[in-house]
Design goal:
By secondary structure, the protein is mainly beta. It has two helices and eight strands. The chain has helices spanning about 5-15, 170, and strands at about 60-65, 70-80, 100, 110-115, 140-145, 150-160, 180-190, 195-210. It is globular and about 50 Å long.
Length: about 210
């Protein structure tokens, strides 16, 4: 499967973002240790053994995210590209929210839908994704969509990786089913930055259609 036009550029811009996750007191963190995404066709991952098939949903923007195992219940905002070509991050405020990268599929569509959140929000304290690393395989994630539908995902893996070794293909590579990626910072904190990224991988397990 070939990566659609412009998607490789978007992936590269997103990878640059991931070095900063709201560690700084005055902003969204410093973007050091940039990760380059290769401009080449993506990969197609087969479904996990034993995974049941769930019909994909129509495109609809996510407006809410629930992760019961770690106490997350947050509105979701849309994120695009900043003027410098990096992906926008949610604002650093005391009312911290997750953000959906609008150049990725919406949750429930075929492909990897990408949501981002802070682990800390400067002087405001803990971020919405502060406990993301505590998730385990089998935990549920629910996304609420603008059209009233909902897509439920089941965690398949949680990985903590050094930012300099960000697994670009695993995160952005094309897949043949609806999947979800949740991304924040993690690992040791040095000054205003975190050394690692925490990445949650999940696959669609159930849907609730929009009300007619």
């Amino acid at each position: 499967m070939t990566r659609p036009a412009g998607r490789a550029l978007a992936a590269a811009a997103l990878a640059v973002l991931l070095a900063g996750c709201g560690g700084g007191a005055g902003g969204a963190g410093n973007a050091g240790n940039d990760v380059a995404a290769p401009d080449r066709p993506g990969t197609t991952a087969p479904p996990s053994p034993g995974a049941k098939s769930t019909r994909p949903l129509e495109r609809s923007v996510p407006v809410g995210l629930r992760i019961p195992a770690v106490g997350v219940d947050t509105p979701v905002m849309r994120l695009g590209l900043a003027a410098d070509g990096t992906v926008q991050v949610p604002p650093v405020t005391d009312d911290d929210r997750a953000g959906w990268y609008r150049h990725s599929p919406t949750p429930g569509q075929v492909g990897p839908s990408v949501l981002l959140g802070h682990v800390t929000v400067g002087t405001h304290g803990d971020g919405v994704f502060r406990h993301l690393a505590r998730l385990h395989r089998g935990d549920r994630i629910e996304t609420r969509l603008e059209n009233g539908a909902a897509a439920e995902f089941t965690v398949t893996a949680v990985r903590t990786v050094r930012k300099a070794e960000f697994p670009t293909d695993d995160v952005y590579g094309d897949v043949n089913r609806p999947e979800l990626r949740l991304i924040t910072c993690g690992g040791p904190r040095v000054g205003e930055e975190y050394r690692d990224n925490v990445i949650v991988f999940a696959a669609l397990s159930a849907t609730r259609p929009a009300a007619s």
